[in-house]
Amino acid sequence: MKNFLFVWLRIFKYKWLSNCKRIEGYPNVFHPVLINGKGKVVFGSNVQIGVINSPYYYSHYSYLEARHETSLITIGNNVSINNAFSIVCFSKISISDDVLIGVNCSILDNDGHQLSPDKRNEEPVSEQVHIGKNVFIGNNVTILKGVEIGKNSVVANGSVVTSSVPENVVVAGVPAKIIKQL
Predict the structure, then answer these.
(1) Which of 142, 157, 164, 180 could be bridged to 148 by S-S, CB 3.0 to 4.6 A?
(2) Residue with more model confidence, 40 or 52
């Protein structure tokens, strides 16, 4: 009864509130997801959003926004996304196969607003983001515009990724730096 009242009704509500009409694929949803925007969102096979025995299961939701008609979010096969995840996409964000994403992570391909005070109401600069195959992203990670994370790499908890990450490394910190080769 608890899951029905506090989770499944919310999953239905957020699906109903979502306004994105260009969605391909069907993720396995265990946590409410709001998908908005005029762009396209593509899910591969065996994509899981939400983890039952994890923080924010009863209190938060995940948010995917493909803001413009040309915006594209692609999530590959066998991707597991934990609770309270968000993507805001103005151009393109791609997540490859076999990626694990921790609790409360954000991926943004834009600054949200122009940085210059006299241009704050103008469209911000957007740069594509790509997450390589078999990447593990820890909890509370933020990945910013223009970043590419190479295959098999690990992003440690609490990191802010401001520049690209090569293959087979562990990065950590604010901003994220290489701390170990795999």
Answers:
(1) 164
(2) 40
Four-residue CA torsion sign, 5, 8, 12, 15: positive
- Considering the candidates 60, 68, 113, 130, report the single residue annotated as catalytic: 113
* 45-63 mean pLDDT: 93
Among residues 128, 172, 175, the alpha carbon closest in space to that of 153 is found at 172
157-179 pLDDT, tens digit each: 999 999 999 999 999 999 999 99
Query: Do residues 96 and 76 touch, judged by C-beta distance below 8 A?
Result: yes
- Say how many CA atoms lie within 13 Å of 125 toward its Cβ: 8
Mean pLDDT of 92-112: 97
N- to C-terminal Cα separation, the chain: 45
3-state secondary structure of 119: helix
The amino acid at residue 93 is I
- Alpha helix (H) ranges present in the chain? 2-3, 9-17
Note if 113 is an active site residue.
yes
34 has a pLDDT exceeding 80: yes
